[in-house]
Specification:
- The longest helix has 11 residues.
- Among the domains are: 77 residues, RRM (RNA recognition motif) domain (Alpha-Beta Plaits); 73 residues, no CATH class.
- The radius of gyration is 28 Å and the shape is globular.
- The chain contains six helices and twelve strands.
- The termini are far apart.
- The protein is α+β, with helices and mostly antiparallel strands.
C-alpha cells in the first residue's frame, strides 16, 4: 500500500516520541486471506508441456476443455447493432420483463456485446423465443454462446419464428410439428396458441437457424406413399 506523502513541516512540529500512524496499515496476510468465491467451479486439468520453435506451449485435454466450456452452456450473447442503452437499463429490462426463473449474471464484454449467463436451459429457450429485439429503442441480436465466439464476428445462428399456415387439424400435435421444424433448423419452442389449440389456422414455432445456409421456402409432408402436400 502506498502511504500518503506527508506535508512539509518544521522539526519543532514533529512529536519524536510517538511512532504511531493515524491509520492502520493492513498486512499482506490479511489481504491475501480474504476469500473470494470463484464464479466458475475450479478443477485440476490434465496438461502437457510442449515446445514449438523454442516457445513453451501448454496443452489441455479435449475433455478438460469441454468441461470448462460446459460452464457457459446456458450463456447468451447480446449484440447491439448501433449503440447500446445504459447498462442499468439493460439489467432492469432483463430482470423485470424477461420472465426468467432466476436472475442471470449480466456482464459487459465490450462496447457492442453483453454476456447474459443463465442457470437453466428453460430460461435460455424462453429468451431466444422472445419476439422483442430492442431495449430502449436500441435493436439487438441474441445468440447462444459457443466455444468459437469471436466478438469481431457475428454469430451465424439466430432464432426464427416459423409458421405452418393451414396445417390440418390432426397434424397440429406438437410432436409432429417438432419433427417438421427439423427441416428448417433446431426446434426451440412452440407458441402458446398452438399448444392450447386456440388458433388452429396457424401452427407457429421458434427454431434456431444457420443464417449462412439457404433456408427452404417450402417443405413437403408425405401423408401416404402417393400423397405429398407442400
Amino acid at each position: 500500500m502506498l502511504l500518503p506523502f506527508p506535508a512539509l513541516i518544521s522539526s519543532s512540529q514533529v512529536d519524536v516520541t510517538s511512532t504511531a500512524l493515524p491509520f492502520a496499515i493492513p498486512s499482506f496476510v490479511s489481504i491475501a486471506s480474504k476469500k473470494v468465491k470463484p464464479a466458475l467451479e475450479e478443477f485440476k486439468p490434465e496438461t502437457r508441456i510442449l515446445s514449438k520453435d523454442g516457445m513453451p506451449v501448454i496443452s489441455f485435454s479435449p475433455s478438460n476443455l469441454n468441461k470448462a466450456a460446459a460452464a457457459f452452456n446456458t450463456t447468451l450473447i447480446m449484440s447491439f447493432l448501433a449503440g447500446k442503452p445504459q447498462f442499468d437499463d439493460i439489467t432492469r429490462i432483463i430482470e423485470s420483463n424477461w420472465g426468467l426463473l432466476k436472475v442471470p449474471k449480466v456482464v459487459v464484454l465490450d462496447f457492442k456485446h453483453i454476456m447474459v449467463r443463465m442457470t437453466s436451459e428453460k430460461d435460455v429457450t424462453r429468451v431466444l423465443s422472445r419476439e422483442s429485439r430492442q431495449i430502449k429503442g436500441f435493436f439487438l441480436r441474441l445468440a447462444r454462446w459457443t466455444i468459437d465466439f469471436d466478438p469481431n464476428k457475428d454469430s451465424p445462428f439466430a432464432p426464427l419464428w416459423v409458421q405452418f399456415l393451414g396445417l390440418k387439424l390432426y397434424l397440429q400435435n406438437n410432436g409432429i410439428v417438432k419433427e417438421m421444424t427439423g427441416l428448417i433448423g433446431k426446434y426451440l419452442i412452440t407458441d402458446t396458441p398452438m399448444l392450447s389449440l386456440s388458433r388452429p389456422s396457424t401452427a407457429r414455432v421458434c427454431v434456431k437457424v444457420n443464417l449462412t445456409k439457404d433456408l427452404p421456402t417450402k417443405a413437403g409432408l408425405a401423408l401416404t406413399k402417393s400423397s405429398i402436400v407442400e
